[in-house]
Design a protein that fits this description.
Blueprint lengths: L9 E4 L9 H12 L1 E3 L10 E3 L7 H14 L10 H9 L3 E6 L6 H10 L5 E4 L5 H11 L4 E5 L2 H10 L4 E4 L21 E2 L3 H12 L6
Length: about 210
């Protein structure tokens, strides 16, 4: 029996700091509601949060606050410049799905959140490295070509190990974070690092059209 035909090209995109700002509204909320300052000085997110008296926020409390933010404050998030128009442009030429590291119980909220900002896409939730989840998505869609977009280098490494044929774009649209995130392209885990959608869109479209496979 012949395998089913391959589908349209597929773009698998992260959400936070790729499509929507997360750290900026999170920082504002921490300051307004919890008297916590958020200052990134390196790539260690866990050391960025301190109470006004100088005490560092403990890891368990960081996770609690992150969960509370996604439970009650997602309305504060707003799109990265150019992201909505870019995704909608891509949708005319490829399938687009969102692979976000949130709990399964937040899938519907994330789907509604993106729709409210003008992005209608299927959302897949995940915990941990994204390679296995991406592999499952590809097995379902059987795309002719695949682009993966994420702001965190460890996910590019995971995808590169499990699905090396996937074209991987490291994109962080949050200026507060971008200078502090290790570059997956420099590490050899992504094919490019582009932090602006105005430049990322032509790169993605070229791959969808088979123009940058070499």
């Amino acid at each position: 029996m012949n395998p089913p035909p391959m589908g349209r090209p597929l773009v698998i995109s992260d959400c936070d700091e790729v499509l929507l700002h997360m750290v900026a509204p999170y920082k504002q909320w921490l300051s307004e509601c919890h008297h916590i300052d958020f200052v990134m000085t390196d790539n260690d997110f866990g050391k960025a949060m301190r109470y006004r008296d100088g005490r560092q926020v403990e890891p368990a409390e960081i996770w609690r606050l992150l969960g509370l933010f996604f439970d009650t404050e997602m309305y504060r998030q707003h799109p990265i410049v150019g992201a909505v128009d870019a995704i909608n442009t891509i949708t005319a030429h490829a399938d687009v799905v969102i692979l976000t590291n949130l709990g399964d119980d937040r899938r519907e909220a994330r789907t509604r959140q993106l729709a409210d900002h003008g992005i209608t896409a299927r959302v897949f939730t995940n915990q941990g490295p994204k390679g296995p989840a991406l592999r499952a998505i590809i097995d379902e869609y059987r795309p002719s070509r695949t682009v993966f977009i994420d702001d965190l280098p460890q996910h590019h490494a995971s995808v590169g190990e499990i699905a090396p044929d996937v074209r991987r774009l490291h994109l962080c649209g949050e200026p507060m974070l971008a200078p502090h995130i290790s570059c997956a392209h420099e590490a050899g885990h992504a094919h490019a690092r582009i932090d602006a959608w105005s430049e990322a869109l032509p790169w993605i479209m070229a791959h969808i059209n088979g123009e940058n496979d070499v």
